[in-house]
Amino acid sequence: MRRATGKPGRLVGVDVARFVAVFGMFCIHFGVPFAGGWPEVWLAQFFSGRSTALFTFLAGVSLALMTGRSTPPTGQALRDASRRVAVRAAVLLVLGLALAKATEATGFLLTVIIPFYGVYFLLAVPFLRLRARGLITAAAVSAALGPQLSFVLRGWNAADTPMSALVSLVNSVDPGHLIAEEGIFDLLLFGFYPAASYLPLVLAGLAVGRMDLTSARVRLRIGLFGFVMSLIGYQVSFQLVPIGPPNPVEGTIPVGHPEWLLAANAHSGTTFELLGSGGIALVILAVCLELADRTGRALTPLAKAGSMALTLYAAHALALAWQIVTGGWPLSGVPENLAHLASMGPALPLDDPNMPWFPRDGQQPTGLVAFVNTFMPEVFLVFTFTFTYTWRHFFRRGPLEALVSDIVRWSTKPRRIPTP
């Protein structure tokens, strides 16, 4: 069987899976390109929450690929790898905060995940020395305990406890919280993708990345295990909570409803949601790896786009902010799986004429701006393939990928000590 690679040692299937994750985010925020009716609704519903889980899971796979693959680093190699990952985490944190500030017009419609990635990477550093079996154990334990611990600590913060005083004190001086409301406590516990809930996906990805992903047998096992894990996560949750939380519940489970920890709603970060969406991430990765080997260069456009996932994520966030600022995010164009947000009351005022995305008399976009806003799903998809294919023809990495890698390389390269 032929092994598809873009450069020596690169797994094209991983890049294809990254594109699937980013494409899912496009569908959620812009709509599904070249689709309408039930296909658009179904795809948007499928990607809701699962795209984030796949993106996060693949971050763990990337950590493994850049730190020895199936052979964990030891000794000096481990120290060097830990330093590189820590610097990368810091760069992603700063970059993510800047992007969150630049796209604050999106409000509740988009929570930039990049700063959370920085914390995920930093917390994953102590696990770099583990092999696949140890990482699987760590992922399972953290998936079983993390969401519950997050729920308890958020409850303590909501009450009048010393913890709430500590959080208020730290938030008052935390640059991340002051700049973009994504400070250390937001990233660990209170944000939309808190590390306490989502770190298990990173550890699971790190475990999978420690396996031989060039082996068809390993891929089959990964895919089957993911299918079973997803089935268990969603079916057991449905048996325990047949109705589940109402649709308007997005993000972490409210502290007043511990019974909803048994649900598997998208973005809830519960143990069952991690099992369900994490299992689907395993299946998607296994399928993409196998397809990349069997189709040769047929998936090259998808792989090139996936290799620039960070750049594309930032571009789509900026495009969404631009769309909202220009008044081109029409209420009538919201995918049906997000339409329930309109029922969430004053906290999510989709139909409030004072909101920046609500078209006002005399302020509706016209001309090219109106065309781009109307056909944003199709325009952005065409831009994605055109830009990434052209860029990769001249450069080895995407612009943001190169920026992060160059900073990490410059910051961690050995310094020569001048001899007297």
In short:
The protein is 63% helix and 0% strand. It has 420 residues and is an all-alpha fold.
Describe the model:
This protein has 420 residues and is mostly helical. It is 63% helix and 0% strand. The termini are far apart. Mean pLDDT is 86; it is low at 1-8, 331-351 and 356-362.
Helix-strand blueprint:
Layout: H1 12-30, H2 38-47, H3 50-65, H4 75-102, H5 114-124, H6 132-158, H7 162-173, H8 175-180, H9 184-190, H10 195-209, H11 216-240, H12 271-295, H13 300-306, H14 309-325, H15 367-374, H16 376-394, H17 399-412
Helix pairs in contact: 1-2, 1-3, 1-12, 1-13, 1-14, 1-16, 3-10, 3-12, 4-5, 4-17, 5-10, 6-7, 6-10, 11-12, 13-16
Keywords for this entry:
420 residues; disordered N terminus
Content of β-strand: under 5%
| Topology as a string of helices (H) and strands (E) | HHHHHHHHHHHHHHHHH
Summed over residues and divided by their number, the pLDDT gives a mean of: 86
Q: Which structural class fits the helix and strand makeup?
A: mainly alpha
The portion of residues assigned to helices is: 55-70%
Query: Can you tell me the overall shape?
Result: globular
